[in-house]
Write a structure and sequence with these properties.
The protein is of the alpha/beta class and 508 residues long. Among the domains are: 2-177, 3-Layer(aba) Sandwich (Rossmann fold); 407-503, ANL, C-terminal domain (GMP Synthetase, Chain A, domain 3, 2-Layer Sandwich), CATH 3.30.300.30. A 5-stranded mixed sheet has the order 4-3-5-6-7, with helices on both faces. Strands 12-13-14-15-16 form a 5-stranded mixed sheet, sandwiched between helices. Strands 17, 18, 19, 20 and 21 form a 5-stranded antiparallel sheet that branches. Helix 7 (118-125) links the parallel strand 5 (108-111) and strand 6 (129-134). Helix 4 (37-53) crosses helix 5 (70-80), helix 8 (180-194) crosses helix 9 (211-223) and helix 11 crosses helix 13 (289-299). The relative contact order is 0.09.
Length: 508
């Protein structure tokens, strides 16, 4: 299993020997089934042999369409030990699968979905080989495909292990190719920051087709010989029962998930009290300060906010567990890579000056699988331009203020939507708030805010605007406030501001 064996090149240790001593790796299903290291390695070798038999080479792409669980984890390791994995969201439509298959050009689809599932239907139309899973083993549905082809499927550190697409909120999604070295470096950074040990147990809440779920929820815990509980999917209603049954030491999630847990905490106080975690980790989107503080008060553990993106194999900066290693509102300090703030001319900015966040490190992709102009725009002298705006404080803690492309340009006044989010979510009657741009005939853009009120509470637009007057400059006060039951989110739990006006029916 390459990603495990090659750790010796990162930490000067043969990982297989390391595991033979500890024998601590466990993948645990929701109902308590355990897959230990020995069982996992047997599955990997059997699955690798079948991939080899049907002629799959190390530079071939294999699409994986599976729900969270042991099947996904065993399949993922089987694939990256042979070739390139491309996990996809099982909830995609036929149109979406057609797009991603067209982009990825996979030789094989690994799935346990039925024939009428969109992923399978489109794969058949595009004549993609299909390997169905049965008890975690690949099963070739067409005997004629089985033809022994001896290939050299041993990847190198520089070889691609994983391809994921960016969210594509502003343009066509870009393909991010991450090498084994990228993933290994990210695992090292995460485990160092979180002080993970082999005795730790993580409960997987994030979807496995997302970089947060793959690296932070699966790879990093296994990197240190730890245990992972592979829940089929996140469910706020059943979370507390799972917490009580599996007794994890930590978990990582996005803010929308964490907020939904707080909504159900009152009816599960006993479980929370009886199952003390070491910490809770939040990443992939900004966590409102009041939510962080409430989480820490509720669970009585540190909440570690991190900052990551697909192009960096997930983590870039993070708060730390050590004393004085956390600041509310900050996404922490760089761990294992270089991070700086620059202006539009790529000039380094001073502390407390807002500019673009740029990064460089072994966990950062070398280039997109895209045309030259896209890579030229994304990189400068070896630095990757994240597109995020932020600043470092005097102590070296990073604060994210927004996305460059999400900035609202109101008649020349540049407005950070996150600042507006924070103001309205601090109001006692507001559960969630998300600011975004709407069209304005004269100003070009104006501010709109979608509000989700707390249960059984009422509020008016005038009341909210009056509250904001003392906290925001007049030009930042929203022109329009809309009350909604929920705010649309993507498959990974992230809110996408761009295009939100259309999704909410405010604009055509």
């Amino acid at each position: 299993m390459y990603i495990l064996v090659q750790i010796r090149k990162i930490i000067n240790m043969n990982f297989m020997s390391h595991i033979k001593v500890k024998k601590t790796i466990q993948v645990i299903s929701d109902d308590g089934e355990i897959l230990n290291l020995e069982s996992l390695l047997i599955l990997i070798e059997k699955n690798k042999k079948l991939l080899n038999q049907i002629g799959i080479k190390k530079n071939d792409v294999v699409a994986i369409v599976l729900d969270n669980g042991i099947k996904f984890i065993s399949s993922f390791f089987s694939v990256i030990n042979s070739c390139i994995s491309a996990p996809l969201n099982p909830n995609y439509s036929e149109r979406e699968f057609n797009f991603y298959y067209s982009d990825l050009k996979p030789k094989v689809l690994v799935t346990d979905m039925k024939d009428d599932h969109a992923s399978v239907k489109v794969a058949k139309k595009r004549k993609i080989k299909i390997l169905n899973l049965k008890k975690n083993l690949f099963e070739n549905t067409k005997k004629s495909l089985v033809e022994y082809v001896k290939t050299n499927n041993t990847p190198l550190l520089k070889d691609t292990a994983l391809i994921l697409h960016t969210s594509g909120t502003t343009s066509k999604p870009k393909m991010v190719a991450l090498s084994h070295e990228n993933l290994l470096s990210s695992c090292k950074n995460i485990t160092k920051a979180l002080e993970l040990k082999s005795k730790d147990k993580n409960m997987i809440l994030m979807p496995s087709f997302h970089i947060h779920g793959i690296v932070a929820s699966i790879l990093a815990p296994l990197y240190v010989g730890g245990k992972v509980v592979a829940l089929p999917k996140f469910n706020a209603l059943s979370f507390f029962n799972s917490l009580d049954f599996h007794k994890p030491t930590w978990f990582t999630a996005v803010p929308t998930m964490l907020q939904s847990l707080l909504d159900r905490e009152k009816s599960n106080k006993k479980i929370v009290k009886n199952n003390r975690l070491k910490f809770i980790r939040s990443s992939s989107a900004s966590l409102p300060n009041h939510v962080l503080e409430k989480l820490e008060k509720t669970f009585k553990v540190p909440v570690i906010e991190s900052y990551g993106m697909t192009e960096a194999s997930h983590q870039m900066t993070t708060n730390l567990l050590i004393p004085l290693g956390r600041k509310v509102g900050s996404v922490g300090v760089p761990v294992g890579l270089k991070v700086k703030i620059v202006d539009h001319n790529f000039k380094n900015l001073n502390k407390n000056e807002i500019g673009e966040v740029v990064i460089k490190g072994r966990n950062v992709l070398k280039s997109y699988l895209a045309e030259k102009k896209i890579n030229d725009a994304a990189f400068f002298k070896g630095w990757f331009k994240t597109g995020d705006l932020g600043y470092f404080d005097k102590d070296g803690f990073l604060y994210i203020t927004g996305r460059i492309k999400e900035i609202i340009n109101r008649g020349g006044e540049k407005i950070s939507p996150k600042e507006i989010d924070d103001v309205f979510t601090s109001y006692s009657k507001v559960d969630k708030a998300i600011a975004f741009s709407i069209q304005h005939e004269k100003l070009g853009e104006d501010v709109c805010v979608a509000i989700v009120l707390k249960i059984n509470l009422n509020c008016t637009s005038s009341e909210l605007k009056e509250y904001a007057k003392n906290k925001l400059a007049p030009f930042k006060i929203p022109k329009k406030i809309v009350f909604v039951k929920s705010i649309p989110i993507g498959a990974t739990g992230k809110i996408q501001r761009i295009g939100l006006a259309k999704k909410l029916g405010i604009e055509k």
